Amino acid sequence: MSAPIEVPKWADVTLVPALAVILAFLVAGSVVIGIGENPVRASILLVQGAFGSGEGIGYTLYYATNFIFTGLAVAFAFHAGLFNIGGEGQATMGGLGAALICLQFDFLPWYLVLPLAILGAMAMGALWAFIPGYLQVKRGSHVVITTIMFNFLAATLVVYLLVNVIGKPGSMSPETRGFSPSAHMPFMHEALAVLGITIPKSPLNLSFVLALLASYGVWLILWRTRYGYEARTLGANPSAAHYAGISVPRVTMSAMAVSGALAGLLATNEILGVQGRLLLEFSSGYGFIGIAVALMGRAHPVGIFLASILFGALYQGGTELSFEMPLVTRDMIVAISGLVVLFAGALDMVMRRPVAFLFRVFHKEEA
Amino acid sequence: MHAVLHRVAAIGAALLLPLSASLAAEVKPAIVYDLGGKYDKSFNEGVFHGAEEFKKTTGIDFRDFEIQNDAQREQALRRFAKDGFSPVLAVGFSQASAVEKVAKEFPDTKFTIIDMVVDAPNVQSVVFKEHEGSFLVGVLAAKASKTGKVGFVGGMDIPLIRRFACGYVQGAKAANPKIEVFQNMTGTTGAAWNDPVKGAELAKSQIDRGADVVYHAAGGTGVGVLRAAADAGKLGIGVDSNQNGMHPGKVLTSMLKRVDNATIASFMAAKDGTWKAGVTVLGLKENGVGWALDDNNKALITADLKTAVDAASADIVSGKVQVHDYMSDSKCPD
User: Fold this and answer.
1) In chain A, what are the domain boundaries?
2) pLDDT-based confidence at A5, cuts 50/70/90?
3) What is the pTM of this model?
4) What are the φ and ψ backbone dihedral angles of A86, each rounded to 5 degrees?
């Protein structure tokens, strides 16, 4: 009776999250009924909006790109036992890094300026996470506190720079001038057109490919390198890691830096890909949703990819839903996403217990 | 019998269908609100009320959409254009680059943008002479002030809001050359539109320095400005929509920016086939701006005030008084 709750691995990564999503949709459906709409039609519209057209898929993947970057950022730090909730600020700083490079060097051809801008985004994101890591190691201030406070610092710094230093003079909204076309991350429909493939227009750009490469890279580092082993050991048991001769300060600071660099990459999608200029609040909450994505994806790149697709679909399908059903406002979509986060993250056990129970029952019958 | 009915129905259909189809193709208005949302008690809501009124008078329904992030501006405009909506109305200056892009992709769709000029053959830009309306409330503020000191609280520090401030100062000085005007901006980011606490603090500090009338052009922040003025027993001045009713007897007047009229005018023009691309500037003369007088502030607007503001209004309409526009040269005359 007192045996721990055992769920087979395959069920833990597929069945439990899937049930959580279904439960979230059922609860969300009752909200839809509450406002006097048909929940079945709403669900169909949502799925169709996200996957029913080439354009819809493009938008879904575009949103998913953001979630992959921020999800990976949270997951990487998580494996090293660090809870980085500063993705928002690191992404903002990444945008600043990319923008500074673009503003200075966008007269260069794309094959020089784009890699430089991507590196700039990663460097600034890394810096913004490295400092909290350093403070934790040297001063004992916990990263949960410092990273979230660094979000505000990043926002304030970018506001200051946009208003007083790098903003376009005379503009109504605080933003930089537009970058030249050479600093533009090509859209997927542009890139594929070169190969003779025509797809509908959407903001989906080559950052998506970068996100897939980053996912592979994270997997490679964490599970196939000595450094990854050190990081995971630190996450599993800091004392054991120390005892085994792993330098806890070094791994802590570097893991934070890698995490920040991943979050900073969000800027390649938003700033280099879509906006082509630096503006305020482009990170619009993706950094925080990255936490939910990492939790749902069990901090594994494959899981994060799937969770990102789910959240991308919620964003895009939700937009289409509020087009088709004017009664469903944008706040309703936030509520539905919130329910998914609630059931997939916080109420994870609600699903796991019954699943484990069922497995135990069936297991006994077989035996 | 059956055959006859069929024939009648067929004739009816033949007559009616093309008619209704052509009507539907002509006006299917849609609105894309700015990030503030449909019910912001001010700018976006004004557009919504205008559209509602258009619906009431013509029976033509409209669709609208509240964006959630910047990427959705283009998406929403494109979506409406693709579904055959026209005119598509974009609210707010932040939509300019999105309208510019999407208008190029859909040359047959009519686009209207409020508060910003987009130069394209199928875009109508509606801008307001906020300085003229602000001039009038400046006159009222100076006349109503007993201390000879009045205040102004702006939202985000952008040229548009400085235009409000500059018109207000000119009006106040025209009514009382010795008047002192305190000016504060709430902030430099979008958050400055929605910070009633800071708005109240700024208004309070101006009142402490002797101001007894405070005008705000600060969106949601202004709620705090009006509240602080009312609590201190002084007078506030509302903006955009008629805010006199928020603290009856404590709001001197409101500077009206008739985005609702602009919305109706744009939709009506599209319906009547008189819709034209280009820049429309709505000032006092065109009834695009003005000041609010209703039961809530009737007692505050004395005969003296009324005469002064009516005279100023007539002078601006006739062109005798030219209110300087801050945005024309980024300067405000002293």
Assistant:
1) 62-297
2) low
3) 0.82
4) -100, 25
